[in-house]
């Protein structure tokens, strides 16, 4: 079914990240849908490891310049864009000096999770939503990949609930075995600042509990990894949301 507008929100994509299943799957899904005549856009964080020179990223001035307020602090939103190497598929990068300049993704050199991972996820989610609105491009399908993207449906169904912009978009969540890590214990106050409360994940805020929480805010949950770890598999089996077992890339458009 061509001519759909498909938005991929991801934390990993080949060749910007290599050697992970998620990065490979997102690349193949996006390219397949693009080559079949759909209007595809990809959004991801501009982590410090991603070389702007190598991948020819450039800032989109008309989209940059917004500020995202997190916990009463203004954080400038910078949008960069590049074409996937060798393809005419646009990838947008959410950037901010405070949150994404560092080279490691989520953990410091000692293996400790960054204390602001929660704020980085909030900034990423809200940055994607605000940029899509500024593009004046309304997706038919939003496909989420990676734990940071799980904040997007939570925000869409709470903070942005009265905003009709995304009301017809169907949201797909892919589950992957990502390394779990606790999130800041005061994340509840940061979300409360955006009038978000009552989430089960706040009892034990972590990468995994927010992914599991987001299952209740999407239209379809699908296995991104063929075999999920015990907690994710249990949540997958118990969710009341429509779900799909692992699909190879050639079959992914069945979901859409």
UniProtKB/TrEMBL annotation:
Domain of life: Bacteria
Keyword check for DNA damage: no
Reactions that this protein is recorded to catalyse: [(1->4)-alpha-D-glucosyl](n) + ADP-alpha-D-glucose = [(1->4)-alpha-D-glucosyl](n+1) + ADP + H(+)
EC numbers on record: 2.4.1.21
Enzyme type, top EC level: transferase
Protein keywords: Glycosyltransferase, Transferase
Starch synthase catalytic domain boundaries: 5-178
Pfam families to which the protein is assigned, alphabetical: Glyco_transf_5
UniProt-listed InterPro entries: Starch_synth_cat_dom
Record-level Gene Ontology MF annotations: alpha-1,4-glucan glucosyltransferase (ADP-glucose donor) activity
Gene3D superfamilies for the chain: Glycogen Phosphorylase B
Name of the protein described by the UniProt record: starch synthase
